[in-house]
Amino acid sequence: MSLRYALLGLLAGEPASGYDLTQRFEKQLGLIWPAKHPQIYGELNKLADAGLIEIDSEGPRGRKVYRITDAGRAEAKRWLTEEPVDRTARLEPLLRSLFYWLMDPEDLRAHLAAEAAYYRQAAAGFEQFAADKDGGVYGDSPQVKSMRVTIEAGVKLYEALADWAEWAQTVPPAEPQD
């Protein structure tokens, strides 16, 4: 259900086509909330049917640019203020860590080193995105300020996961069970 609200939030900032929204998802949200092209187009149709968005303009080859309606903006605000937050974190790395005892110690060390490197790189990617935003490239709008809060959460989350993967490398491995 959150894809619906993510699209409403993105369209509240400015009208966009399905392609543009897919690009924004990948650039702005890809590491924390991925969405694929077919998912986005399917949800756009549902939002339009519900009257929460409408076609702003149509271009060549059937390209449609959508904009949020007043009802859509009200629904996004209602979601932000009235709906309980789903704090479920489905992190596959943590699920896998529950079963590290099945891995050979050498494989486990290599895996954890790769995890730490990945998370450090992801945190650096968020930091670079923040530097671009802070550099004035995107202005000082309320949307950019909110995005800065999200970016900081991404930096802290990925740094914490990198720290965890580095710490886990110091835990003596269990003997693998066959």
Automatic annotation (TrEMBL):
* Domain of life from the UniProt record: Bacteria
SUPFAM superfamilies annotated for this entry? Winged helix' DNA-binding domain
**Presence of the UniProt keyword Cytoplasm in the record:** no
Q: Which InterPro entries match?
A: Tscrpt_reg_PadR_C (IPR018309), Tscrpt_reg_PadR_N (IPR005149), WH-like_DNA-bd_sf (IPR036388), WH_DNA-bd_sf (IPR036390)
- One matching Pfam family is Vir_act_alpha_C
Upper lineage is: Bacteria, Bacillati, Actinomycetota, Actinomycetes, Glycomycetales
Tell me the ranges covered by the Transcription regulator PadR C-terminal domain, including all copies: 92-169
- What are the GO MF terms of this UniProt record? DNA binding
* Keyword annotations of the record: DNA-binding
Question: Does this UniProt record's set of keywords contain DNA-binding?
Answer: yes
Q: Please report the stretch or stretches of sequence annotated as the Transcription regulator PadR N-terminal domain.
A: 7-77
| Protein name in the entry | PadR family transcriptional regulator
